[in-house]
Amino acid sequence: MKIRFLFLFFLCVPVVVSIFSQQSDKMMIVIIDGARHTETFGDPAHQFIPEMWGISAQGAVIDEFRNDGTTYTSRAIPALWCGAWTDIFDTVYNGSSTSYAKLPTIFEYFRKDKNVPAGDCFYVLEFIQDLWLPSFDEDYGPDYWPQFHSEGSTDSDVAEQTEWVMDNYHPHFLWVYLADVNHAGHSGNWNEYTSAIQNADQVVGQLWDKIQSDSFYQNTTTMIVTNDHGRHDDQHGGFENHGCNCEGCRHIMFLALGPNVKENYTSSQSRVLPDMAITASYILGINPASATGEVITEILNPNSVSDIEPLSMNFQLSVSPNPFDTNTKIHFTLSQTAEVSLSICDPEGIKVRSLINEIKFKGEHEILWDSRSDSGQIVKPGIYICTLQSGINNQSIKLVKLSD
Ligand SMILES: [Zn+2]
Ligand SMILES: [Zn+2]
């Protein structure tokens, strides 16, 4: 009897620990500009990234992460900021010629949703005269830009400045941009290029150590490390340049560490560049309203992100036009970020179409139903029931299809 009781006790301990595990409310995103996957996690020996390879046992690596848009820095960096491929416009700001992103950025989403000052959201990079700017979006814009901290001239300087910012401001959000790998790649000198990767690798290891040795950041911070693009593979001109659609330019690294991220996990599911900011937003509990990527749920601990299935949810479901002939738009508002499903049933309750089954952010959403069933056929005229569900919450609405 005693033995059985003890056994049960030990069986229960891991469950209790996972329910009360800590959440990440801080984020550090590190961008290593222009490192090709074959020299980072795509190298079976990991010879240039011993630090990142070492700490990856504490987190998750995505083997199939790609730039799915333009493999130039000027387009890929804003896409990493926005969680979407955004237009870029030229402007003159405070007397300097520069450019800005059309869509709002994760900095703006973070500062507005959390209602925090610029000193809680830092962008650390080497000294650059004319910084690229976030958006002038009317709902976000300059009032929500990050605090730019642009000093020094090497990745090691940027690491030192990042530690200084952490010590002096303790921001919840840090974006760290490392430029040296791309510069060294463009030199065409292989040893310079690989040395720059080794140095960036050291910087990542140093910053993770800093996070885990500061009680403010320790065990409550997510770190994501990725690239804006790779470099040409040998069949398309080699490592000196980048900018085309070749595998070398597209294939990039993705490493995530932190309390919400699975440990010692490698994912082979394909993911793309805009998914990074969406996933960071999801972990922080902010809504990237204009972003287009998806949450990379497969690398997250299922129990560690609090609001996947909220206990209470306020839906506002509507359909227009209704009645309709061929297409109708289903509109809904979520009071919280959650995993939701939206489906269409016939009057007998038999499901004819599953429209979505994924995590959606709090706020407004619109889904088009083209009056087709899951097998692609146009459904018959008649009455249908549209149901939105999240966990134990659901709401239904009747819709009428008039003709084919
Ligand atoms: Zn770049
Ligand atoms: Zn290429």
Give the topology:
Layout: H1 2-19, E1 26-32, H2 50-55, E2 59-62, E3 65-66, H3 73-82, E4 88-93, E5 96-101, H4 106-114, E6 121-125, E7 147-150, H5 155-169, E8 173-178, H6 180-186, H7 190-213, E9 221-226, H8 247-250, E10 251-252, E11 254-257, E12 265-267, E13 271-272, H9 275-284, E14 318-320, E15 328-334, E16 338-345, E17 351-360, E18 363-369, E19 382-390, E20 393-401
Parallel strand pairs: 1-8, 1-9, 2-12, 3-13, 6-7, 6-8
Antiparallel strand pairs: 2-11, 3-10, 4-5, 9-11, 14-15, 15-18, 16-17, 16-19, 19-20
Helix pairs in contact: 5-7, 6-7
The structure holds zinc ion (ZN) (2 copies).
What keyword list fits this structure?
404 residues, alpha/beta, Alkaline Phosphatase, subunit A, Immunoglobulin-like, 2 domains, 4-stranded antiparallel beta sheet, 9 helices, globular, disordered N terminus, binds zinc ion
Give an overview of the whole structure.
With 404 residues, the protein is an alpha/beta fold. The chain folds into 2 domains: 20-299, Alkaline Phosphatase, subunit A, CATH 3.40.720.10; 318-401, Sandwich (Immunoglobulin-like). Helices cover 25% and strands 27% of the residues. The strands form 5 sheets. The protein has an 8-stranded mixed sheet with strand order 7-6-8-1-9-11-2-12, sandwiched between helices. A 4-stranded antiparallel sheet has the order 17-16-19-20, with no helix packed on it. A hairpin with a 7-residue loop joins strand 14 and strand 15 (328-334). Helix 5 runs parallel beside helix 7 (190-213) and helix 6 (180-186) packs antiparallel against helix 7. The longest helix is centred in the middle third of the chain and has 24 residues, at 190-213. It is globular and about 70 Å long. 40% of the residues are buried. Residues 33-34, 73, 182, 228-229 line the site of one zinc ion. One zinc ion (ZN) binds at residues 33-34, 73, 182, 228-229.
